[in-house]
């Protein structure tokens, strides 16, 4: 799968919120996820290594959501082995007021699989 094909599939599945399918089918087993330093203040690790650990982190994060009001994933921008998308969601976390979350995800693709994802927010 080319980077362009993988990016298009990522966007398709992300729009459908099929996070586990994305990770199971598009991510390398040794994928690395890098969050910004401020993620630690929210109880999330800054670096996560391995597909299963990345999946577990996402499941834990989504379990804190009381209500998902809206969710959007942009069309990907592709350059060489990389693609990026913007993600925007309006959510209510348990015990908190509604908020809008916006982030940019940058993905490194090698041999048809995501080997690193990095988020900026």
Protein architecture, described:
- With 121 residues, this protein is an alpha+beta fold.
- It has one domain (3-120): Nuclear Transport Factor 2, Chain: A (Roll), CATH 3.10.450.
- Helices cover 28% and strands 45% of the residues.
- The protein contains three helices and seven strands.
- A hairpin with a 2-residue loop joins strand 4 and strand 5.
- Helix 1 packs antiparallel against helix 2 (19-26).
- The longest helix has 13 residues, at 3-15.
- It is globular, with a radius of gyration of 14 Å.
Entry keywords:
121 residues, alpha+beta, Nuclear Transport Factor 2, Chain: A, 7-stranded mixed β-sheet, 28% helix, SnoaL_5, SnoaL-like domain-containing protein, NTF2-like_dom_sf
Counting copies of identical and different chains, the oligomeric state is single chain
Global shape: globular
CATH topology: Nuclear Transport Factor 2, Chain: A
Instruction: Provide the helix percentage.
Output: 25-40%
The end-to-end span amounts to: 29 Å
Number of strands: 7
| Mean pLDDT figure | 96
- Profile the largest sheet: 7 strands, mixed
Going by helix content, strand content and strand pairing, the class is alpha+beta
Order of helices and strands: HHEEHEEEEE
Strand content: over 45%
Q: In the CATH classification, which architecture applies?
A: Roll
Number of domains: 1
Which spans of ≥5 residues are poorly predicted at pLDDT below 50? none
Q: Count of helices?
A: 3
Alpha-carbon Rg, integer: 14 Å
CATH class: Alpha Beta
Domain SnoaL-like: 1-121
Organism: Dinghuibacter silviterrae
InterPro entries: NTF2-like_dom_sf (IPR032710), SnoaL_5 (IPR046860)
Protein name: SnoaL-like domain-containing protein
């Amino acid at each position: 799968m080319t980077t362009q094909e993988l990016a298009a599939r990522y966007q398709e599945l992300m729009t459908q919120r099929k996070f586990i399918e994305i990770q199971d089918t598009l991510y390398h087993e040794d994928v690395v996820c890098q969050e910004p330093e401020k993620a630690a203040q929210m109880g999330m690790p800054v670096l996560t290594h391995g597909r299963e650990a990345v999946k577990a982190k996402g499941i834990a994060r989504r379990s804190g959501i009381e209500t998902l009001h809206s969710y959007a994933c942009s069309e990907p921008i592709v350059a060489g082995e990389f693609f990026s998308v913007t993600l925007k969601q309006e959510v209510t976390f348990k015990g908190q007021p509604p908020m809008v979350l916006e982030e940019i995800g940058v993905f490194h693709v090698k041999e048809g699989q995501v080997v690193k994802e990095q988020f900026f927010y």
